[in-house]
Write a structure and sequence with these properties.
This protein is α+β, with helices and mostly antiparallel strands and 106 residues long. The chain has one domain: Ubiquitin-like (UB roll) (Roll), CATH 3.10.20.30. The protein is built from three helices and five strands. It has a five-stranded mixed sheet. The longest helix is centred in the first third of the chain and has 7 residues. The chain is globular and about 30 Å long. The N and C termini lie far apart (32 Å).
Length: 106
Amino acid sequence: MPKITYIAFDGTETPVDANEGLSVMQAAVNNGVVGIVAECGGACSCATCHVHVEQGWFDKLPEAQAMEKEMLDFVMSPQPTSRLSCQIKITADLDGLVVHTPESQY
């Protein structure tokens, strides 16, 4: 079971053992991770599951699709490693993934 570590804006770390096939957002919501609002439930239509992927992991992810890239234009505190966690599917290759939540999703 891949382990995903969520780091809140205040530095609080929440490690989660996540089921393959879920999204990084779903694993966060299922485990009460602070900082992932997920208003649209993973439909890639609200950008309230925005995360900053640690640099070493960013290039290991599939490239963001057009819809995700458009939604990222609306996030607060965008970074070069910004992604929507609803669009990152958990696989065995992502064991150890680290993502940071921004100060606010609004």
